[in-house]
Specification:
This protein is an alpha/beta fold. The chain has one domain: 3-Layer(aba) Sandwich (Rossmann fold), CATH 3.40.50. It is about 35% helix and about 20% strand. It contains 9 helices and 9 strands. It has a 9-stranded mixed β-sheet with strand order 1-3-4-5-2-6-7-8-9, sandwiched between helices. The N and C termini lie far apart (about 40 Å).
Protein backbone atom coordinates (compact mmCIF):
# COMPACT_ATOMS: atom_id res chain seq x y z
CA UNK A 1 0.00 0.00 0.00
CA UNK A 2 1.44 3.37 -0.96
CA UNK A 3 -0.74 5.57 1.23
CA UNK A 4 -0.36 6.25 4.95
CA UNK A 5 -3.41 5.58 7.12
CA UNK A 6 -4.01 7.51 10.30
CA UNK A 7 -6.44 5.35 12.25
CA UNK A 8 -5.69 6.89 15.66
CA UNK A 9 -6.28 10.61 15.35
CA UNK A 10 -4.67 11.29 18.72
CA UNK A 11 -1.35 9.79 17.52
CA UNK A 12 -1.11 11.24 14.02
CA UNK A 13 2.62 11.02 13.34
CA UNK A 14 2.51 13.32 10.32
CA UNK A 15 1.15 16.29 12.24
CA UNK A 16 3.66 18.45 14.09
CA UNK A 17 2.55 20.29 17.22
CA UNK A 18 4.36 23.33 15.82
CA UNK A 19 2.42 23.96 12.61
CA UNK A 20 0.31 27.09 12.31
CA UNK A 21 -3.30 26.73 13.39
CA UNK A 22 -6.41 28.66 12.40
CA UNK A 23 -5.91 30.60 15.64
CA UNK A 24 -2.47 31.71 14.42
CA UNK A 25 -3.85 32.56 10.98
CA UNK A 26 -6.60 34.65 12.55
CA UNK A 27 -4.00 36.55 14.54
CA UNK A 28 -2.08 37.46 11.39
CA UNK A 29 -5.31 38.41 9.57
CA UNK A 30 -5.17 35.63 6.99
CA UNK A 31 -8.81 34.97 7.85
CA UNK A 32 -11.29 35.92 10.56
CA UNK A 33 -13.43 34.36 13.27
CA UNK A 34 -16.54 34.02 11.09
CA UNK A 35 -14.67 32.20 8.35
CA UNK A 36 -12.87 29.95 10.83
CA UNK A 37 -16.25 28.95 12.27
CA UNK A 38 -17.51 28.15 8.76
CA UNK A 39 -14.42 26.08 7.93
CA UNK A 40 -14.87 24.12 11.16
CA UNK A 41 -18.48 23.43 10.19
CA UNK A 42 -17.41 22.27 6.72
CA UNK A 43 -14.96 19.79 8.23
CA UNK A 44 -17.50 18.47 10.72
CA UNK A 45 -19.96 17.94 7.85
CA UNK A 46 -17.24 15.95 6.02
CA UNK A 47 -17.08 18.41 3.15
CA UNK A 48 -14.46 18.04 0.43
CA UNK A 49 -12.36 21.18 0.21
CA UNK A 50 -9.59 22.57 -1.99
CA UNK A 51 -7.26 25.42 -1.01
CA UNK A 52 -6.19 27.19 -4.19
CA UNK A 53 -3.85 29.94 -5.30
CA UNK A 54 -2.01 30.74 -8.51
CA UNK A 55 1.44 31.64 -7.17
CA UNK A 56 3.75 29.23 -5.42
CA UNK A 57 4.61 29.85 -1.77
CA UNK A 58 1.26 31.50 -1.17
CA UNK A 59 0.48 29.47 1.93
CA UNK A 60 -1.81 26.79 0.49
CA UNK A 61 -0.34 23.92 2.49
CA UNK A 62 -0.22 26.01 5.65
CA UNK A 63 -3.88 26.92 5.29
CA UNK A 64 -4.97 23.37 4.44
CA UNK A 65 -3.07 21.94 7.41
CA UNK A 66 -4.77 24.45 9.70
CA UNK A 67 -8.22 23.66 8.31
CA UNK A 68 -7.89 19.89 8.62
CA UNK A 69 -7.06 20.27 12.31
CA UNK A 70 -10.85 20.53 12.61
CA UNK A 71 -11.68 17.17 11.06
CA UNK A 72 -13.49 15.41 13.94
CA UNK A 73 -11.46 12.74 15.75
CA UNK A 74 -13.94 10.02 14.80
CA UNK A 75 -12.92 10.30 11.13
CA UNK A 76 -10.06 8.33 9.64
CA UNK A 77 -7.50 10.01 7.40
CA UNK A 78 -5.55 8.47 4.54
CA UNK A 79 -2.50 10.38 3.29
CA UNK A 80 -1.85 9.83 -0.41
CA UNK A 81 1.65 9.53 -1.82
CA UNK A 82 1.60 10.93 -5.27
CA UNK A 83 1.49 9.36 -8.69
CA UNK A 84 2.42 5.95 -7.23
CA UNK A 85 -0.74 5.92 -5.09
CA UNK A 86 -2.53 2.63 -5.78
CA UNK A 87 -5.69 3.33 -3.72
CA UNK A 88 -5.50 -0.14 -2.24
CA UNK A 89 -6.85 1.40 0.97
CA UNK A 90 -10.31 1.77 -0.60
CA UNK A 91 -11.57 -1.79 0.14
CA UNK A 92 -10.19 -1.50 3.68
CA UNK A 93 -11.78 1.79 4.69
CA UNK A 94 -15.27 3.11 5.30
CA UNK A 95 -16.04 5.81 2.74
CA UNK A 96 -18.54 7.50 5.06
CA UNK A 97 -15.86 7.90 7.73
CA UNK A 98 -12.69 8.67 5.73
CA UNK A 99 -10.90 11.79 4.49
CA UNK A 100 -8.37 11.39 1.69
CA UNK A 101 -5.54 13.89 2.20
CA UNK A 102 -3.81 15.17 -0.96
CA UNK A 103 -0.77 17.49 -0.77
CA UNK A 104 -1.53 18.89 -4.24
CA UNK A 105 -3.51 18.16 -7.37
CA UNK A 106 -1.00 18.75 -10.16
CA UNK A 107 1.65 17.11 -12.32
CA UNK A 108 4.48 19.30 -10.99
CA UNK A 109 6.22 16.46 -9.14
CA UNK A 110 5.65 12.71 -8.65
CA UNK A 111 4.57 13.51 -5.07
CA UNK A 112 1.27 14.98 -6.31
CA UNK A 113 -1.87 13.46 -7.80
CA UNK A 114 -2.92 14.10 -11.38
CA UNK A 115 -4.09 12.16 -14.41
CA UNK A 116 -5.46 8.70 -13.65
CA UNK A 117 -4.71 8.94 -9.93
CA UNK A 118 -6.68 12.19 -9.61
CA UNK A 119 -9.57 10.62 -11.53
CA UNK A 120 -9.55 7.67 -9.12
CA UNK A 121 -9.68 10.15 -6.24
CA UNK A 122 -12.83 11.81 -7.57
CA UNK A 123 -14.41 8.44 -8.32
CA UNK A 124 -13.76 7.53 -4.68
CA UNK A 125 -15.49 10.75 -3.64
CA UNK A 126 -18.49 9.61 -5.67
CA UNK A 127 -18.60 6.59 -3.33
CA UNK A 128 -18.70 8.81 -0.24
CA UNK A 129 -15.05 9.57 0.57
CA UNK A 130 -14.09 13.16 1.33
CA UNK A 131 -10.98 15.00 0.16
CA UNK A 132 -8.76 17.80 1.41
CA UNK A 133 -6.28 19.09 -1.19
CA UNK A 134 -4.48 22.08 -2.69
CA UNK A 135 -4.22 23.20 -6.31
CA UNK A 136 -2.75 26.07 -8.35
CA UNK A 137 -5.76 28.13 -9.46
CA UNK A 138 -7.02 31.68 -8.96
CA UNK A 139 -10.73 30.93 -8.54
CA UNK A 140 -13.23 28.14 -7.96
CA UNK A 141 -14.25 28.44 -11.60
CA UNK A 142 -10.65 27.88 -12.69
CA UNK A 143 -10.42 24.82 -10.43
CA UNK A 144 -13.44 23.33 -12.18
CA UNK A 145 -12.05 24.21 -15.62
CA UNK A 146 -8.84 22.35 -14.77
CA UNK A 147 -10.75 19.30 -13.57
CA UNK A 148 -12.96 19.33 -16.68
CA UNK A 149 -10.02 19.71 -19.06
CA UNK A 150 -7.29 17.32 -20.18
CA UNK A 151 -6.01 14.96 -18.97
CA UNK A 152 -8.74 14.42 -16.32
CA UNK A 153 -11.91 15.21 -18.30
CA UNK A 154 -14.01 14.79 -15.15
CA UNK A 155 -17.78 14.89 -15.48
CA UNK A 156 -19.83 17.52 -13.67
CA UNK A 157 -21.27 14.84 -11.42
CA UNK A 158 -17.78 13.87 -10.23
CA UNK A 159 -16.59 17.47 -9.84
CA UNK A 160 -19.52 18.50 -7.69
CA UNK A 161 -18.52 16.05 -4.99
CA UNK A 162 -16.28 19.01 -4.17
CA UNK A 163 -18.01 21.33 -1.66
CA UNK A 164 -15.81 24.40 -1.27
CA UNK A 165 -12.77 26.22 -2.63
CA UNK A 166 -10.70 28.56 -0.46
CA UNK A 167 -8.61 30.96 -2.55
CA UNK A 168 -5.54 32.72 -1.20
CA UNK A 169 -3.81 35.89 -2.33
CA UNK A 170 -0.15 36.72 -1.76
CA UNK A 171 0.95 40.35 -1.64
CA UNK A 172 3.88 42.40 -0.42
CA UNK A 173 3.43 44.91 2.37
CA UNK A 174 5.58 46.93 4.76
CA UNK A 175 6.04 43.86 6.95
CA UNK A 176 6.97 41.56 4.09
CA UNK A 177 4.85 38.96 2.34
CA UNK A 178 1.16 38.94 3.24
CA UNK A 179 -0.97 35.84 2.68
CA UNK A 180 -4.73 36.28 2.94
CA UNK A 181 -7.89 34.41 2.09
CA UNK A 182 -9.31 36.25 -0.91
CA UNK A 183 -12.37 34.14 -1.76
CA UNK A 184 -14.37 31.27 -0.32
CA UNK A 185 -16.77 29.64 -2.76
CA UNK A 186 -19.40 27.00 -2.17
CA UNK A 187 -19.60 24.50 -5.05
CA UNK A 188 -23.02 22.93 -5.61
CA UNK A 189 -24.23 20.44 -8.24
CA UNK A 190 -24.30 22.00 -11.68
CA UNK A 191 -21.65 23.08 -10.92
CA UNK A 192 -23.02 26.21 -9.31
CA UNK A 193 -20.77 28.68 -7.49
CA UNK A 194 -21.90 30.67 -4.45
CA UNK A 195 -19.52 33.27 -3.05
CA UNK A 196 -19.43 33.03 0.75
CA UNK A 197 -16.65 35.48 1.62
CA UNK A 198 -14.35 37.80 -0.29
CA UNK A 199 -11.50 40.24 0.23
CA UNK A 200 -10.57 42.58 -2.57
CA UNK A 201 -6.97 43.65 -3.22
CA UNK A 202 -5.70 46.17 -0.65
CA UNK A 203 -8.64 45.50 1.68
CA UNK A 204 -7.98 44.54 5.27
CA UNK A 205 -11.15 42.67 6.12
CA UNK A 206 -13.16 39.85 4.64
CA UNK A 207 -16.70 40.64 3.52
CA UNK A 208 -19.12 37.81 4.28
CA UNK A 209 -22.12 37.08 2.10
CA UNK A 210 -24.84 36.49 4.69
CA UNK A 211 -28.08 36.97 2.81
CA UNK A 212 -30.93 34.52 3.45
CA UNK A 213 -30.41 33.08 -0.03
CA UNK A 214 -26.72 32.38 0.59
CA UNK A 215 -27.43 30.85 4.00
CA UNK A 216 -30.07 28.62 2.44
CA UNK A 217 -27.56 27.44 -0.17
CA UNK A 218 -25.09 26.47 2.53
CA UNK A 219 -27.75 24.71 4.60
CA UNK A 220 -28.95 22.73 1.59
CA UNK A 221 -25.43 21.77 0.53
CA UNK A 222 -24.47 20.63 4.04
CA UNK A 223 -27.74 18.89 4.80
CA UNK A 224 -28.72 21.28 7.57
CA UNK A 225 -32.20 22.31 8.63
CA UNK A 226 -33.52 25.62 7.34
CA UNK A 227 -32.48 28.46 9.64
CA UNK A 228 -29.90 26.35 11.49
CA UNK A 229 -26.74 27.90 10.05
CA UNK A 230 -26.58 31.24 11.88
CA UNK A 231 -26.87 29.76 15.37
CA UNK A 232 -24.41 26.99 14.56
CA UNK A 233 -21.76 29.42 13.32
CA UNK A 234 -22.31 31.72 16.29
CA UNK A 235 -21.73 28.82 18.68
CA UNK A 236 -18.51 27.82 16.92
CA UNK A 237 -17.29 31.43 16.77
CA UNK A 238 -17.83 31.76 20.52
CA UNK A 239 -15.72 28.65 21.20
CA UNK A 240 -12.99 29.79 18.80
CA UNK A 241 -13.02 33.28 20.30
CA UNK A 242 -12.33 31.81 23.73
CA UNK A 243 -9.45 29.72 22.40
CA UNK A 244 -8.10 32.70 20.46
CA UNK A 245 -7.55 34.60 23.71
CA UNK A 246 -5.06 31.97 24.88
CA UNK A 247 -1.86 32.47 22.92
CA UNK A 248 -0.30 29.35 24.48
CA UNK A 249 -2.53 27.08 22.38
CA UNK A 250 -0.36 25.37 19.78
CA UNK A 251 -1.45 22.64 17.35
CA UNK A 252 -1.06 19.92 19.96
CA UNK A 253 -3.14 21.76 22.55
CA UNK A 254 -5.75 22.59 19.93
CA UNK A 255 -6.00 18.92 19.03
CA UNK A 256 -6.66 18.07 22.68
CA UNK A 257 -9.29 20.80 22.92
CA UNK A 258 -11.06 19.38 19.89
CA UNK A 259 -10.90 15.84 21.27
CA UNK A 260 -12.49 17.18 24.46
CA UNK A 261 -15.12 19.01 22.44
CA UNK A 262 -16.21 15.83 20.68
CA UNK A 263 -16.00 13.44 23.63
CA UNK A 264 -19.40 12.35 25.04
CA UNK A 265 -20.49 14.43 28.00
Amino acid sequence: MSSYRDETWREDRNRSQEHMTLLDLMRNNSLDLKLSALLWLLMEKKSSIIVASGPRQSGKSTMLTAIVDFIPPSFERVYTRGQSEDFSFLPETDASNTYIMVPELSDHTPDYLWGDSARTLFEAMEEGYSMAATIHADSAEEVVEMLEGPPLHLSHSLITNLHAVVNLRMAYGEDGILRHVSRVTLVSPGPEFTLLARREANEDALVHEETPAVRAKVETRLGMASGELAADLARRAEILGTWLKDDTINAGKLRNLLIGHYEPR
